[in-house]
Amino acid sequence: MAIAIQQLHPGFVGEVSGIDLRQPLTKDEVVQLQSAIDRYAVLVFHDQDITDEQQLAFALNFGEREKARGGTVTKKEDYRLTTGLNDVSNLGKDGKPLPVDHRTHLFNLGNCLWHSDSSFPPIPAKYSILSARIINPKGGNTEFADMRAAYDALDEETKAEIENLICEHSLMYSRGSLGFLDYSEEEKRMFKPVLQRLVRTHPAHGRKSLYLSSHAGAVRGMSVPEGRLLLRDLTEHATQPQFVYVHRWRLHDLVMWDNRQTMHRVRRYDQAQPRDMRRATVAGTEPTVAQEAAE
User: Fold this and answer.
1) Fewer CB atoms inside 10 Å of the end CB: C or N, the chain?
2) Pairing mode, if any, of strands 42-45 and 14-17?
């Protein structure tokens, strides 16, 4: 059966059929999917009942696995998954939903903010590949924003203003906006801000996009209030309905997206109900801007 792709949103998002991701991909299938993710920025695969190992094998067709760098406050001894996937669930090591006052739960609520995955390491992530193992009966949709179309819709004066701006990204910015301020000295060092361009150019097709995220909390050359107002205005612009696709999860859905061209967020859901989502993250290959030397 040949790969077929149906566009789900006027600007982006492709629903892929005719492929079983439990099986190794052929070279031709990799080429087709690479072309599709460049074009659509988000790919949706239904009915993919895969294992962690199969999910990771699929991800490795598109680059190296990202090595974790301070994306969580969960201690290694408390990790639920040991297969190399990122745990994006609300579950503890015992497989039960975390208590509502659990530190990991409170930290993970930051995923409900608009963000780009792993914009807080010096070299940000390329692709995220999320598998739905247990879904919620209500809520928990994931929304995606097309940052290329959002950039295109800006007026020329704004494009010129932001073209060369550099932002500081840190998990402490995104979590701090929700009131999570409890960090150890080790975590503060781990979450030290890194620099990212505000406007990125995609290497495959040369299209520009806004590189926004709740992790961005300062703009170089601007006062903190001025920079945050600019980032807030741009985020409000980029997340207007005409730029957003809402994914309503079905069991065994797998969604792949390009973090260089999109933002996303999960919507609120009943935290008393289990939600098991597992993400493979494909590493980026270069920084968006030269980083400052460590102090």
Assistant:
1) C
2) parallel
